[in-house]
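User: I'll paste a sequence; please echo it back and then give the predicted structure.

Assistant: Echoing your sequence first, then the prediction.
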Amino acid sequence: MNTSSNQSARGSYTVVSKDGTKIASRTIGSGQPIVLVHGSLTTCDGWREVAESLSDSFEVTAYDRRGRGGSGDTDPYSFEAEVDDLLAVLAATGPETVLVGHSFGGALAAMAARTSEIAALVRYEPGIRLDDQPIGGPAVVDMLAAVESGDTDAVIEIGSRRVVGLSEDEIKAARHSPQWQQQAGLAATWPRELASLDTLDVRPAVFADITVPTLLLRGTESPEWLRETTARTAKMIPETELDELAGQGHGATETAPQLLADKVRQFVDCTRKAKRSTEPITDIKLQADKSWNGTEYRSYPPGPVELTVVRYSIPPHSSLPWHTHIAPNTAFVMSGSLTLLNIDGVTHTFHAGDAFAESVGDEHRGYTEDEGAEVVCTYAGAADVPLSIPTGRALD
């Protein structure tokens, strides 16, 4: 893996985004690259347990999105700049990367997958709105006002209630969790992200540009609007499957990291098998500089090149006449068996699936026994040069 820093590919390093913003990344493990893109109100630390679980067989990179952790931030903020950040990370990890995005990170992953060469895409409840229904909507205005006044608790409370859809009891419980203070420290980044999602182009044609194998994940206990948007976007991407995280909500990156990692691993294994089954098989049947009986090839006949392919159907108990060749040629036995005999008494029988190089200037013939033969010969000759020359020798 290449990076823009002088540090090792394993561990911490930085890449530089299109607008010059430095993006901090961490890599563990070895194998096929995976890039993890976190959502709002967190950092790459939110992926820690998922990354550790996958690192036994993958090279896992998680990065801090701009405005948090070790990454920089540059005004003016835009969704497009965040996509550029991700593209810079993907340029470092390479075209075999599996891209995994959660929530807002899932929206970024989708847009990056439209233009970046990757191997596969996984999106866990991506932040994609339905039709003309905004995700942030009017709540963003009140959240921005709270940011301006320095009331980070209010930012989280407004977003939790009016955007995520948490109940008053759930918000009350969340206030006493360690995550609340961590999220409050990142509160200023949330409304700008929500506002960018509300302007995102979500027409089906946009997602139709994603041509890599894609997995959409949703929790069985997640808010219904997230479950619905996940299912809807799954239908917009050509090669997509939809799966569920049993008993989980929107935060399975931390509540069920092993389950999430297993889903990613299983999907990648399936895409590898599918790729192998559709790749063309190359089976070189013959490479030779001498014929089947050891006669070395010296040259091709002079004159304008003329290639000829002939299919011979030879019945059982047939004998071909004695002959020679001027031009090198190869043969492939499609079915049956054919025995070659040269003037010195050297014989060899070729069966279905065998390929052999014919001799040049060496008198020989072929014959079949109880089964006939279907043989395809390719002659590397020249114009006006006969494919074979009968010698007139009588058959035994």
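The CA atoms of residues 319 and 367 lie 4 Å apart. Residues 257-278 form the longest helix (22 residues).
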